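Supplementary material to the annual report.
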Amino acid sequence: MLKQLEGSRAVAEAVALARPEVICAYPISPQTHIVEALGEIVASGELAPCEFINVESEFAAMSVAIGASAAGARAYTATASQGLLYMAEALFNASGLGLPIVMTVANRAIGAPINIWNDHTDSMSQRDCGWIQLFAENNQEALDLHLQAFRLAEELSLPVMVCMDGFILTHAYERVDMPTQAQVDAYLPPFMPRQVLDPAEPVSIGAMVGPEAFTEVRYLAHVKQMQALELIPAWSSEFRKAFARDAGGLVRPYRLEGADTVVLALGSVLGTIKDTVDELRERGQRIGVLGVSCFRPWPHAAVREMLAGAKRVVVLEKSLAVGVGGIVSTNVRTALTGRAVPVYDVIAGLGGRPITKASLARVFADAAKGNLELTTFLDLDRPTVDKVLAREREMRRSGPIAETVLRLRQ
Amino acid sequence: MAFEPIKYYQTGTFTVGNRLLPPELRTVQADVRRTNSLNSGHRACQGCGEALGARYAIDAAMNATDKQLVAANATGCLEVFSTPYPETSWQIPWIHSLFGNTAAVATGIAAAMKAKGRRDVRVIAQGGDGGTTDIGFGCLSGMFERNDDVLYICYDNEAYMNTGVQRSSATPPAARTATTSTGNVFGQGKNVPAIAIAHGIAYVATATIAELHDLEAKVRRAMEFRGARYIHIFVSCPLGWGHASEASVHIARLAKETGIFPVYQAEHGEIVSVSKIRRRRPVEDYLKPQRRFAHLFSPKVNTEAIARIQAMADRNIRKYGLTED
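Predicted assembly:
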């Protein structure tokens, strides 16, 4: 059914259709509307049986989900930013134990300085925590990925994170096609856990493992993620059959035919990039786009294949590995091992800075001309940065960094 | 309180022999049908108070719940000594997640059971004092505040024993640990049973491994309630406290008899019963056999510190009414 909904509401309704039995809620912008909406749905009796638990922290949210999942319940929570970091220890635990929890991450910057707006630093910081990470381009895909996430998680006994851009998607009202309960029930079978806390068949879960078996346990986690690389495309096409639309998959090519320059990105910024690329194509530039929907596991082969014809790759990413540069670009370079193709990092949109078509067109043109540094910060206010650096050279007690930047800005 | 006051003592020890009691008053542990929930063969130290407390508590809980029990366990001695994979001592469904989240994991299990209509399955969370009073305290308070249907059991041996005896917020004043080499400071510490009572939860009790009938009765009583419940068990640690391994029960009894560790029950925020001190003893009797307090007696007696500890015990005795008079 077509509906005009806020992204958060759309996700909440989709999650409710997946019939989670335990939902843990803790507020953090820009995720809060999702659990608020789920709270309403549970209170209304539409989603039952379901325990909606207002926890005291994100660490508790993930821990309650761990307990619920280990007891055989379909468990869901949502978070963002600092909240994701606060549950970091439990994230590794959930994946290490092989518990198929599904969580929405409404992507947001990480402080300090505290910043509530969108970038991908939060989920990127947890890229190696053993969770599958799917990125949504728009609200329809966010909704759809949640349905796929439960299926994927439970098939592999691995937790799945569905990442959607905070505010840009969570707070945007868009038309979405909401599936019916019958459609979702047909697509998503009931949760059949591989391990469960059951008095009839007692097991010990989460005991200590020494050097004699730890490598094998970790390797199995890796194998499962490698299996996900097979399952995700298969299920994406199955999803298309069931719901008559595309969602998910590993990578999403756009106008790659004859493209010398390929722009690779994740999430909602793909919309702006595609618009920019359309205009550049009209002006005769040989440029295309590769959207990555699945960041973990990293689709080496699919990325390598899609970039086969590229003469250069621009990775536009909303996160920064301080002291390195890009995070996604590092993965892209690995996928292109052995090929002499320059991979440019463009760090953009940090802390919610708008990414405009004009800036993108400029940076893509520079890349095409070979005028781009390997790591570029889109729309960086270099004069202000220089002033701050000069001030730090001049005085020892130069003050709080963020305040200095704000004061010295023109 | 549904517990028979003990009348028959074995001379000198205050230990009640089960054989002197009518069958219905004997311990769960004395029954051949006990569940051995924490089975033999685990790797606890000789004389481990935590192993003794856990064995009695969990078997009593199994007995009270018709064996429909699930436990979440914090990281710590109890977790490590019971489950060196692939071996496990646990005969019940058991999960260890992290050090600081056990109460929340138990909340999740209870929520799952509720959603699945398994109201017969009861949930226990358990951990040491580090996992309870320090790193797990946020999750514990959250579980209390929401009144989740979980019995949390803290086995308090007053320091981080698993990592080699470091101070916790349950370490008593003057006690020497690996991180309080000259003795722990006075005026600090966290009284978690009192904090649990302040949450107004259905049931809070303290117990020691010296009175195992009492411990079993409290676990049984706790299982008569729904909602959040808390039992704080004083468990001696021969390794960390520096006493003979055969003295664990004796030391725990002295903690109670000196007034150092008050033993009581509270329901819905009010104390409803206290275990009286049978034969009051000065705190020196409790302190002297433990190497962690040796610096209070040698090379010279620290009368001031001992007086302060005695004053704390006296305050407990007044506050909780621990003597008959």
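The CA atoms of residues 18 and 30 of chain B lie 7 Å apart.
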